[in-house]
Amino acid sequence: MNGGANRGDSPPVPLYVATSNMGKLREMYALFAGTPFALQLFSGYVSPPEGIERYSDNAALKARALHAQLRARGTPAAVLADDSGLEVSALGGRPGVATADYGGSGADWPARRGMLLAELAAAHTLDRRARFVCAMHLIDPAGREFASLGTVDGTIALEERGELGFSFDPVFCYPPAGMTFAELDEVQKNRVSHRAIAAAAIVAAAAAASRSFEPACTMRGEIAVERE
After folding, report:
1. Deepest of 30, 81, 176, 218, by most Cβ within 10 A of its Cβ?
2. Do residues 134 and 195 make contact, with C-beta atoms less than 8 angstroms apart?
3. For residue 9, what is the DSSP state?
4. Which residue has the higher pLDDT, 148 or 219?
5. What's the CA gap between 142 and 151, in Å, rounded?
6. Residues that are catalytic
7. pLDDT > 50? residue 196
8. Where are the domains of the chain?
9. pLDDT at position 210, please?
């Protein structure tokens, strides 16, 4: 399965994604459609242990691990990784960078969403502010590293709503639309999500460093060139 599209006469740039999360992967294919990149998976990818401090550190760790694993197999190529999480104001920013482990390693997403709603109810607070955060890290074929960060503010709904999306989408309400991320269709969500903002920013960062890359859109995000 490939994402991205060929621009002009230039062949698409293979971009290997460091993830086994199929919901995240489907979203990335949609976000990188129309860019110069063709998303790929490396079946031998082994995810490294992640830290608990910063999304950007975890994204860089995963990208560098995949980059090294591909080189060891004789396949030097561009790689992409991300790390994301949900930060809830009334919970002191939890689950945050530990979002994927909220409720324990054996919990599934319906259980995690139920636990989050129960924890907020037990807190007896009217503060339901929350935000999604996504850090991305890209290493291009020349070995240059780029980082981006996307965030989107919202609130935690009183109950699950919607059948689309994944992870905490059914309980994350996006106020401008008055709907949860799970009620927004793919096109709507991919215009405003934290991952969409980070993806657009990192394509723009790569474009600024190499004229062979053309940014697909101009959504705002934080961009940093990490290493050359």
Report:
1. 81
2. yes
3. T
4. 148
5. 28
6. 83
7. yes
8. 13-227
9. 64
Place of tokens 């502010």: 129
Sequence-separated (6 or more) residues with CB below 8 Å from residue 87: 93, 94, 95, 96, 130, 131, 132, 133
Pick the CATH number of 13-227 from 3.40.640.10, 3.90.950.10, 3.40.50.1220, 3.30.460.10: 3.90.950.10
Which one-letter amino acid corresponds to residue 105? S
Question: Which has more pLDDT, 169 or 206?
Answer: 169
Say whether pLDDT at 220 is over 60.
Answer: no
CA distance 75 to 19: 18
- Helix (H) or strand (E) holding 105, with range, is none
3-state SS assignment for residue 75: coil
CA atoms of 83 and 99, how far apart (whole Å): 10
Confirm whether pTM is higher than 0.85: no
Q: What percentage of the chain has pLDDT greater than the value 70? A: 86
Residues 65-101: b if buried by 16+ CB within 10 A, e if exposed:
bbbebbeeeeeebbbbbbbbbbbbbbbeebbbbebbe
Cα–Cα distance for residue pair 112/132, rounded to 1 Å: 15
